[in-house]
Amino acid sequence: MKILMAYYRYSPHTNGPSSYIDILKKSLEAKGHTVNLLSHDKKWLNIQIDNQQTADKYSLKCELIRRYQPT
């Protein structure tokens, strides 16, 4: 199963929730699942997936508003 975990803070981070998410991700992967983590980057300017692929947060927000805002 493919799983996308969304986390508001940036990752990697060193606090309780981040530790839990890391453990959960590794546990799910050990069971054969594909897990990606969507989070902010350290500067809070971009959205990242697994600390690799990034997208500008402001541009993404504008595009989502354009697509889904009722007219």
UniProtKB/TrEMBL annotation:
- Read off the Gene3D superfamilies from this record: Glycogen Phosphorylase B
Q: What is this protein called?
A: Glycosyl transferase family 1
Native source organism of the sequence: Bacillus glycinifermentans
The organism's lineage is: Bacteria, Bacillati, Bacillota, Bacilli, Bacillales
